């Protein structure tokens, strides 16, 4: 079985598998981008996945276990315009291979084409797009959800977790299923009635596991965007109007202020983006092959793209309270996205 997905002619993904569950997973994640064929000039991530016991993989493949349940063996080859991944594993390995291998490979190839794939949530309206970036758990999905609930019919979803950004400030969607966590429902109670009882139960259980593990174990509940946001437009392309840097602070009030990012701010943002690829870098290193030159070029290109972005797009810092659920920032953000 072969599936192909084209992300705006920037980068593509091709899946070959004999496993129906793997095919269904990637079709659910990337269904917006499914394509009958791929233009020859697009860099492509190729994944060949087979369901099975990892000990049956070739001896020179790397064996890996993640959080006890997900077990697979793999090989990765990184080129200038292609990333080839071969993997054999169990059903729990499928989402981990997506998160730890496929997604970072897309980022790597996009950067080689001069396009930044930024860890950010995003909304877009008639005037342009607004990105919300920061470490995992800082509030990207929460802020995007608050805006979508209260922002009117013309404000649409642009990205849930990552977004493509060109040096010229054009943004392109990377729409996957929403990855939800339990605290979101206290910020956006309107979402409760859009979730099935079993989904709310899973959110509660996984939220308690996350709290018990002190954030070491974070498993999301994946929900289709059409179900979560019925009637909301999916904005595929927009012009970036503002970059919002999210942080958590003491007190019970949110604070929004414009600022000019320093070199230290940009370095921290780059480190955040690469922190999200830490598993990928570790899995590459485990192959005992030298990928240092490719990784160096990748970092340099993302650094350059962030610098150009910050020089041309207004930046704002939104500090959300660690305690309480203050959404007083909403009117100011809605004005910014409409400017």
CATH topology of the largest domain: Rossmann fold
Architecture of the largest domain, according to CATH? 3-Layer(aba) Sandwich
End-to-end separation: 46 Å
H/E topology pattern: EEHEEEEHEEHEEEEHHEHEEHHHEH
Strands, count: 16
Strand content: 25-35%
Q: How are the SSEs placed, and which strands pair?
A:
Layout: E1 2-7, E2 11-17, H1 20-30, E3 44-51, E4 62-66, E5 70-78, E6 82-89, H2 93-112, E7 116-124, E8 129-133, H3 140-150, E9 156-159, E10 162-165, E11 170-172, E12 178-180, H4 184-187, H5 197-212, E13 221-223, H6 225-228, E14 237-249, E15 255-259, H7 263-275, H8 278-285, H9 292-312, E16 315-321, H10 330-338
Parallel strand pairs: 2-3, 3-6, 8-14, 14-16
Antiparallel strand pairs: 1-2, 4-5, 5-6, 7-8, 7-9, 7-10, 10-11, 11-14, 12-13, 15-16
Structure commentary:
With 339 residues, this protein is an alpha+beta fold. Helix content is 35%, strand content 29%. A hairpin with a 4-residue loop joins strand 7 and strand 8. Helix 2 crosses helix 8. The longest helix is centred in the last third of the chain and has 21 residues. The mean pLDDT is 91.
Summarize the structure.
The protein has 339 residues and is of the alpha+beta class.
């Amino acid at each position: 079985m072969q599936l192909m997905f084209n992300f705006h002619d920037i980068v593509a993904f091709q899946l070959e598998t004999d496993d129906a569950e793997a095919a269904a997973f990637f079709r659910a994640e990337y269904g917006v981008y499914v394509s009958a064929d791929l233009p020859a000039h697009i860099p492509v991530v190729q994944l060949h996945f087979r369901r099975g016991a990892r000990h049956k993989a070739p001896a020179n493949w790397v064996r890996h276990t993640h959080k006890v349940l997900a077990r697979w063996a793999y090989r990765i080859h990184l080129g200038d315009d292609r990333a080839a991944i071969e993997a054999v594993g169990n059903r729990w390995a499928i989402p981990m291979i997506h998160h730890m291998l496929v997604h970072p490979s897309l980022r790597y190839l996009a950067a080689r084409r001069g396009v930044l794939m930024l860890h950010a949530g995003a909304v877009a309206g008639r005037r342009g797009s607004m990105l919300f970036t920061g470490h995992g758990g800082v509030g990207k999905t929460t802020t995007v959800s608050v805006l979508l609930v209260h922002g009117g019919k013309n404000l649409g979803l642009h990205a849930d977790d990552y977004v493509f950004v060109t040096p010229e400030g054009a943004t392109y969607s990377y729409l996957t299923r929403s990855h939800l966590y339990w605290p979101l429902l206290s910020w956006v109670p309107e979402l409760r009635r859009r979730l099935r009882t079993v989904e709310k139960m899973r959110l509660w259980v996984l939220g308690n596991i996350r709290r018990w593990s002190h954030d070491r174990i974070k498993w999301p509940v994946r929900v289709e965007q059409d179900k979560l946001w019925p009637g909301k437009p999916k904005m595929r392309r927009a012009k970036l109007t503002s970059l919002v840097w999210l942080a958590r602070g003491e007190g019970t009030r949110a604070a929004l202020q414009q600022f000019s990012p320093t070199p230290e701010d940009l370095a921290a943002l780059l480190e955040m983006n690469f922190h999200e690829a830490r598993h990928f870098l570790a899995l590459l290193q485990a192959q005992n092959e030298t990928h240092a030159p490719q990784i160096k070029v990748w970092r340099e290109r993302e650094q350059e793209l962030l610098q150009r972005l910050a020089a041309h797009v207004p930046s704002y810092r939104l500090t959300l309270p660690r305690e309480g659920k203050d959404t007083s920032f909403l009117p100011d953000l809605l004005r910014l996205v409409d400017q």
